[in-house]
């Protein structure tokens, strides 16, 4: 665990605000490879599904519980991500799952206000000691539906969730009250930058009505002490073997080469 990755002030801000933005967490080459591979990855596209947003749009995403020897696994195991999540959550973390949000230009749907723990609570996780690292694959702007958060809303605790279109959203009455009391922050990001956020932080995003796609790669982690008490769609605790940060480029270059040589792989 590497608390030195953050200053005491940054850790305090995460505890108070529920999120922290890290600029340039991944290099231009790394994030370009991630985007190229994701868009050429037929296996990912076959696993992609949509969630209607209740506003006439739909969000496309793919979710994976297992880590493989590919760029997604290298990022999810990378020391620069895992060490930071451990520093912020205060314990050893393990890979809960990862996903690619595919918000395409003009048609990408919205996400309703929700907390990730609003879902994960039902998976047998007793505590909200969980979090995510969302890496911008494309530039994330207000116009193309960047992540929006209510600063400090994680301190409210878990809110009841229910259906919103094909999605599950937080209780609208509570959300309305929270919107009056907490600052709304638009998490605009350059490609390769990331936002790390607590599982109880209220967040959403608008539809993408712009000419520019907004893909984001999200690595989700649970803490060791929060090992779920029952089986669910996401895994229970297994030790996570971290990999050297250099593996992201090494694995990414090899995977991109393979995809170019064998497009059907």
Automatic annotation (TrEMBL):
Protein name per its UniProtKB record: 1-deoxypentalenic acid 11-beta-hydroxylase
Organism the protein comes from: Gimesia alba
Broad class of enzyme this protein falls into: oxidoreductase
Lineage, opening ranks: Bacteria, Pseudomonadati, Planctomycetota, Planctomycetia, Planctomycetales
GO MF entry, a single one: 2-oxoglutarate-dependent dioxygenase activity
Domain of life: Bacteria
PANTHER family with a match to the protein in the record: PHYTANOYL-COA DIOXYGENASE DOMAIN CONTAINING 1 (PTHR20883), PHYTANOYL-COA HYDROXYLASE (PTHR20883:SF51)
Coiled coil regions, renumbered to chain: none
Pfam families assigned to the protein according to its UniProt record, in alphabetical order: PhyH (PF05721)
């Amino acid at each position: 665990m590497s608390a030195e990755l953050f200053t005491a002030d940054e850790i305090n801000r995460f505890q108070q605000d529920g999120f922290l933005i890290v600029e340039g967490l991944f290099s231009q080459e790394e994030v370009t490879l991630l985007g190229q591979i994701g868009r050429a990855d037929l296996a990912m596209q076959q696993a992609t599904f949509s969630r209607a947003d209740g506003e006439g749009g739909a969000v496309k995403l793919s979710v994976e519980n297992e880590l493989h020897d590919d760029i997604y696994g290298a990022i999810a195991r990378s020391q620069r991500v895992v060490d930071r999540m451990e520093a912020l959550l205060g314990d050893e973390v393990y890979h809960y799952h990862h996903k690619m949000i595919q918000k395409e230009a003009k048609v990408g749907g919205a996400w309703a206000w929700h907390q990730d723990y609003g879902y994960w609570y039902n998976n047998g996780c007793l505590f909200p000691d969980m979090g995510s690292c969302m890496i911008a694959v494309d530039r994330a702007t207000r116009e193309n539906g960047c992540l929006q958060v209510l600063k400090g809303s994680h301190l409210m605790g878990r809110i009841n969730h229910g259906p919103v279109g094909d999605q599950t959203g937080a209780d609208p009455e509570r959300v309305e009250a929270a919107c009056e009391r907490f600052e709304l922050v638009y998490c605009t990001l350059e490609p390769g930058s990331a936002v790390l956020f607590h599982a109880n932080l209220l967040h959403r995003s608008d539809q993408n009505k712009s000419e520019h796609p907004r893909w984001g790669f999200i690595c989700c982690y649970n803490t060791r002490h929060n090992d779920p008490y029952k089986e669910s769609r996401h895994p229970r605790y297994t030790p996570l073997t971290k990999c050297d940060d250099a593996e992201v480029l090494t694995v990414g270059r090899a995977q991109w080469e393979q995809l170019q040589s064998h497009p059907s792989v």
